[in-house]
Amino acid sequence: MERTLVLCKPDAVQRGLVGQILTRFEQKGLKLVGMKLRQFPKELLEQHYSDHKERPFFPSLVGFMGSGPVVAMALEGIDAIAVVRGLMGKTNAREAAPGTIRGDLGMSFSNNLVHGSDSAESAAKELALFFPGADELVDWTPCTLEWSYSVG
Ligand code: UDP
Ligand code: MG
Q: CB of 109 closer than 6 A to ligand 1?
């Protein structure tokens, strides 16, 4: 099992798409193990996107992510990191495939609705950043587990 961080970005919250986005992850079979809504401080967002700090879009990205509330989620499942990235679609929503979150719901490169961790290392860093408290992530067993995942 893997855990990954998903953010519903400010455009998703403003457009009332959080429920639809969460539904896609739930229906796929990913387990929600943590969730919060916050307007996150600039310093945290700069740390979150620190890999991009030399890129020209970094200031506008951090500004956008701090411009309104964000819903942060921790999702768990087999290969959760890659599964979430697949459901999100390509970064530029105009190029994202139909059927993906960005492909179905967005038209922007920057305001592309969702973030998902891109590796095990990023997931560990990002989950610790957005869910620092020891009790913020919950271990539980969905009654559908055996039906959602085949054995092996
Ligand atoms: N972004 C942007 N312009 C670019 C590249 C990225 O505004 O040219 C924004 C976009 O919101 C993207 C985020 O920066 O989601 C992080 O970029 P990354 O390449 O990590 O894309 P992601 O992992 O989100 O698909
Ligand atoms: Mg990324």
A: yes
Range of the domain at 135: 2-148
Q: How many CA atoms lie within 13 A of 24 on its CB side?
A: 20
Which pTM was predicted? 0.97
Instruction: Tell me which DSSP letter residue 53 carries.
Output: T
Write the residue with the smallest CA distance to atom 24 of ligand 1: 115
Residue 106 contacts by C-beta under 8 Å, 6 or more apart in sequence? 11, 93, 94, 96, 112, 113
H/E stretch holding 105 reads helix 101-105
43 has a pLDDT exceeding 70: yes
| Count of structural domains, the chain | 1
The domain that holds 49 is classified in CATH as 3.30.70.141
Q: Is 57 in the pocket of ligand 1 (CB under 6 A)?
A: yes
Whether 52 is a known active-site residue: answer no
> What SS3 class is residue 102?
helix
